[in-house]
Automatic annotation (TrEMBL), chains A, B:
Its main location: cytoplasm. It comes from Pedobacter metabolipauper. Mg(2+) binds at D223, D247, D251. This is 3-isopropylmalate dehydrogenase. Its cofactor is Mn(2+); Mg(2+). Gene3D superfamilies: Isopropylmalate Dehydrogenase (3.40.718.10). PROSITE patterns: IDH_IMDH. Keywords: Amino-acid biosynthesis, Branched-chain amino acid biosynthesis, Cytoplasm, Leucine biosynthesis, Magnesium, Manganese, Metal-binding, NAD, Oxidoreductase. NCBIfam families: leuB.
Length: 356, 356
C-alpha cells in the first residue's frame, strides 16, 4: 500500500537548486515505482528569499514548512554577506530560524563510507576502512541561539553559549537509543575542562547513560575528538555533541566519506523532519554543472527512512548510488587520478544516471 | 658572548614532569655548549598545586613566573576532575589564569613536519608533503574567559563568547608580520555567518589586512577550515584564529605532524614567554616511560628562538631531533609497522639520545 506525503522543497542558494532538482526527481521516481503519492510544493529561503521578500525566512515559507510532512532543503549562503560582516539581514538566519521554529533539535549525520571512495579521501584507506559513525548534533541551542550583543562603539561583540538541561536530555535520549540499535558505543564530546555549559552537558549525559547500561559511554574533549576523528575514526560509533562542536566535527568527518558532496543529514524533533546535504551553497561552482547531487539524493534516502519509515525505498537509493560508484562514475569532487575521465559526470548526468 | 637567563620550570601534572625533565636537560646542555648562563627555578601548577596548596595557580608560582625570563611548562589536568564536572577547583584554571595574568595573548603553534614521520600520520604522505603551517591562536579572550553562569536550580549553564577589537588587532598584527616573513599568505578562521564575535573578528582582520597589501588574506568558516586542514593542508601558510577555534584546529593539525607528541607551542604577549608541548597530561600513560619528550624538547627550541633570539641554538636542537628520527629512533606514539622494534625508545632513552 502506497502512502501519501506532502513534501516541501526549499532549494535555497548557490548550488542548492541544482542539487535539490535531482533529490526531488528521485522522490518522484520512488513514488512511481512503489505506488506512493508524493505531492510537492516549493518555497524560498536564504539569499534568494532576501532578494524576493527582504526576509531570509518569509512567513509563507514557514507556514508551508509547518504544514508539510517533510522538507527537502538545498543550501543557503552568499559571498556578498561573507565579505561584509556588517550586513544585518543574512541568509543563514533563515536556516537557523526554521530549525528553531520547527523544533529540529537533533541533527543526525551518518558518515556513510562507500568502498569505492576509500581512495578519494586524504586519509589512508587502511585507517578509514570499516568506519561507521552516526553523529547526533544538537541543533537549536548553544552559541548559535544565545543572545548576541554588539557594543554601541562597535568595539566589543559577544554571543552567549548556553544550554538548558532538557535540551541535553532530549537529544541524549535519541543518541543512546540509536546506539542501542548499533554498536552500543556512545562518545559525548564537550569542553568540560573549560566551559560551564559543557559541564552541564557532561553531567546530564552521565546521568542519562545510567539508563542505558548496555551502552559503553565515553566523554571526550572537543580538541581531542577533532584529532581522534582522523587518527582513528573506527573507534567511534555514535557521537553526541553540541551545536557548534557538531558543526565543526561533522564537516571534518566529511573527509572520511571522501567528500562533503556525499553526506546527507536529517534534522528531527517535535514535528516535520528536515533533510539536507551537509555541504554549503558553494558559490564558486554554482551554475557550472559541477556540483555533486549525491548528497541531496542521499538526503532523500534519509527522508524516506527516518521521516516516513520507508526502509526498502531508502535502500534502493543507497544501492543505486553504490552501483554508480562501482561502475566507476564520479562527479568532479570525488574523482581522482584513477578515474576514467569519460566517467567524470556533471551534476545533470549524475542525476540522470541515478534516476535509472 | 653568552647570555644570562632565568628560566622557570612548571612540570604540572601527568606526563608533564617526565617530559619537562628532558626539556630542562637540553637547556642545560645548550648553556654548557654555547657558554650561556641559564639558572632554573621550579613551581607548581594544576592538580599538583591543588594537592599541595588548594590552589591551581599558587601566588608563589605567579610571582616566580613574572620575574622569570621564560617559562618551560609541561601539562595540567587529571581524570578525577574530568569525571566530576561539579568540582569547583580545577587544574586547568591554573593554566588559564597564568595565560591571562602574564598577558600571553598570542599562542604560536608551528606545524613542523619531519620527513621521517610522513608515514606516521593517518593522512596520506602525498597530501602532507610540503605542509608548513604556523598557527596564531588568540589565548586570553573568547568563551574561555567570558562570564560563566550556572542557574540556581543548576539546570541552565552559560559561557560568554566575547571579543574586544583591540584583542583581535594585536594578535592580527603579529600574525601578519609573521606572514610577511614566510609565504605571505594568511587565513583567518571564524564563524562570521553565525556569531557576532566572529563578525567583529572578521571586520577587524579585514581592516588590518589593508596595512599588509603584500599578504594574500582569506577568511574561512571554522567548519570548512576543519575540513580543508586535512583535505589540503598545503594550502595554508599562517592561520589566525580565536581561542576556542584555535584549540580545536591545532589539535586536529597535530595529525599532520604524525603525533601530538611532536608539537610545541610558544605563548607570547606583554612580557615573559611561555613554552609548552601542545599535548596534554595523558594520565593513561603517566609514569610508564612511554611519553614522547620531543614536544618538550622542541618547546625549548621555540624558547631559544622566539624567547631569547638564539636562532643557532634552536637549530641545533631541531637538527638533533631530525637526526634521531633519520636514524630510525621513535617513541611509541610515532612508531609504525616499519619501525625497527629495537629503535622504539622510552621517554628516558629518547631524552638521553637527544642530549648526545
Ligand atoms: C550555514 C550554517 C549556518 C550552518 C551551521 O553552521 O549550522 C551549516 O554550516 C551547517 O552545518 O548546516
Ligand atoms: C588544558 C586546556 C585548558 C587547554 C586549552 O583548551 O587551552 C589545552 O587544551 C591547550 O590547548 O592548551
Amino acid at each position: 500500500m502506497g502512502i501519501k506525503k506532502n513534501i516541501l522543497v526549499i532549494p535555497g542558494d548557490g548550488i542548492g537548486p541544482e542539487v535539490t532538482t535531482w533529490g526531488k526527481a528521485i522522490l518522484e521516481q520512488i513514488a512511481a515505482d512503489f505506488g506512493h503519492d508524493f505531492t510537492f510544493d516549493e518555497a524560498l529561503m536564504g539569499h534568494a528569499a532576501i532578494e524576493a521578500t527582504g526576509n531570509p525566512l518569509p512567513d509563507e515559507t514557514l507556514e508551508k514548512a509547518k504544514k508539510s510532512d517533510a522538507i527537502l532543503f538545498g543550501a543557503v549562503g552568499h559571498a556578498m554577506y561573507d565579505n561584509d560582516p556588517s550586513l544585518k539581514i543574512r541568509p543563514e538566519q533563515g536556516l537557523l530560524k526554521i530549525r528553531k521554529e520547527l523544533g529540529l533539535y537533533a541533527n543526525l549525520r551518518p558518515i556513510l563510507l562507500f568502498d569505492e571512495l576509500l581512495n578519494a579521501s586524504s586519509i589512508k584507506p587502511s585507517i578509514l576502512k570499516g568506519t561507521d559513525i552516526l553523529f547526533f548534533r544538537e541543533l537549536t541551542g548553544d552559541v548559535y541561539f544565545g543572545e548576541k550583543v554588539r557594543s554601541e562603539d562597535r568595539n566589543t561583540a559577544s554571543d552567549l553559549m548556553i544550554y538548558h538541561r532538557y535540551e541535553v536530555e532530549r537529544i541524549a535520549h535519541k543518541a543512546f537509543e540509536a546506539a542501542m540499535q548499533r554498536g552500543k558505543k556512545l562518545c559525548s564530546v564537550d569542553k568540560a575542562n573549560v566551559l560551564e555549559s559543557s559541564r552541564l552537558w557532561r553531567e546530564t549525559v552521565q546521568a542519562i547513560a545510567k539508563e542505558y547500561p548496555e551502552v559503553t559511554t565515553e566523554h571526550m574533549f572537543i580538541d581531542n575528538a577533532a584529532m581522534q576523528l582522523i587518527k582513528d575514526p573506527k573507534r567511534f560509533d555514535v557521537v553526541l555533541t553540541a551545536n557548534l562542536f557538531g558543526d565543526i566535527l561533522t564537516d571534518e568527518a566529511s573527509q572520511i566519506a571522501g567528500s562533503m558532496g556525499m553526506l546527507a543529514s536529517a534534522s528531527i524533533g517535535d514535528g516535520t523532519g528536515f533533510f539536507e546535504p551537509i555541504h554549503g551553497s558553494a558559490h564558486d561552482i554554482t551554475g557550472k554543472d559541477l556540483a555533486n547531487p549525491l548528497a541531496s539524493i542521499l538526503s532523500v534516502a534519509l527522508m524516506l527512512e527516518i521521516g516516513f519509515g520507508l526502509k526498502e525505498e531508502a535502500k534502493v537509493i543507497i544501492t543505486a548510488v553504490d552501483k554508480a560508484l562501482k561502475e566507476g562514475f564520479r562527479t568532479n569532487d570525488i574523482a581522482d587520478e584513477t578515474t576514467n575521465p569519460y566517467k567524470v559526470l556533471g551534476t545533470k548526468e549524475m542525476g540522470k544516471l541515478l534516476l535509472k
